[in-house]
TrEMBL record:
It holds the Pfam family Ribosomal_L10. InterPro entries: Ribosomal_uL10 (IPR001790), Ribosomal_uL10-like_sf (IPR043141), Ribosomal_uL10_bac (IPR022973), Ribosomal_uL10_bac_type (IPR047865). It comes from Candidatus Amulumruptor caecigallinarius. GO terms for cellular component: ribonucleoprotein complex; ribosome. Part of the ribosomal stalk of the 50S ribosomal subunit. The N-terminus interacts with L11 and the large rRNA to form the base of the stalk. The C-terminus forms an elongated spine to which L12 dimers bind in a sequential fashion forming a multimeric L10(L12)X complex. One of its GO terms (molecular function) is large ribosomal subunit rRNA binding. The gene is rplJ. This is Large ribosomal subunit protein uL10. One of its GO terms (biological process) is translation. Keywords: Ribonucleoprotein, Ribosomal protein, RNA-binding, rRNA-binding. The lineage of its organism: Bacteria, Pseudomonadati, Bacteroidota, Bacteroidia, Bacteroidales. HAMAP family: Ribosomal_uL10 (MF_00362). Forms part of the ribosomal stalk, playing a central role in the interaction of the ribosome with GTP-bound translation factors. Belongs to the universal ribosomal protein uL10 family.
């Protein structure tokens, strides 16, 4: 491969990484054609970009980006597929579903999610448990609404009780 071609590919990988909020480094070399196609289809449905990359080119692309990705460099051995997504836990959930069917591959090598590096396949459960931005916003809204609902509930039920007591007392007097 010519040096100019490598430069273009590195630039494309860098642009792709900048487009997405997180990325996973995955071992997929042992998948047969059928399983690879199934993985690609599943990624497309989940809005995950799947790329097979050369480790040296990905290494250069990571060096071109802002931030420190040096922890990931040790995972750049063997064949590497890059899974890019905007939802941090989406690739982990997809990988877990895939592994349920065939526990050999794909295998998580490393992930970069929410400015944190996760190394090794044993991190898959932790990654799948990460809540997305929308899930966190929904949790915060629910927490904020809960006290207000309790106050309104107490006021309306108390008002009904008070009204009932006053009505009973007025009927007794009459």
């Amino acid at each position: 491969m010519k040096k100019e071609d490598k430069g273009i590919i590195i630039e494309k990988i860098t642009e792709t990484l900048k487009e997405y909020a997180c990325f996973y480094l995955v071992e997929t070399a042992g998948l047969n054609a059928e399983k690879t196609s199934a993985l690609r289809r599943a990624c497309a449905k989940a809005d995950i970009k799947l790329l097979v990359v050369k480790n040296t080119l990905l290494h250069k692309a990571l060096e071109n980006m802002e931030g420190d990705y040096s922890e990931l460099y040790e995972a750049l051995k063997g064949s590497t597929s890059l899974m890019c997504a905007n939802v941090g836990n989406a690739p982990a959930k997809l990988l877990k579903d895939f592994i349920k069917k065939d526990d050999t591959l794909p295998r998580l090598k490393a992930a970069y999610v929410e400015e944190t590096v996760y190394m090794g396949a044993d991190q898959l459960d932790a990654l799948a448990a990460i809540k997305s931005k929308n899930e966190l916003i929904a949790d915060v809204v629910a927490l904020l609404q809960s006290p207000a609902k309790n106050v309104i509930s107490a006021l309306t039920s108390g008002g009904t009780k008070l009204h009932g007591i006053l009505e009973t007392l007025s009927k007794k007097e009459g």
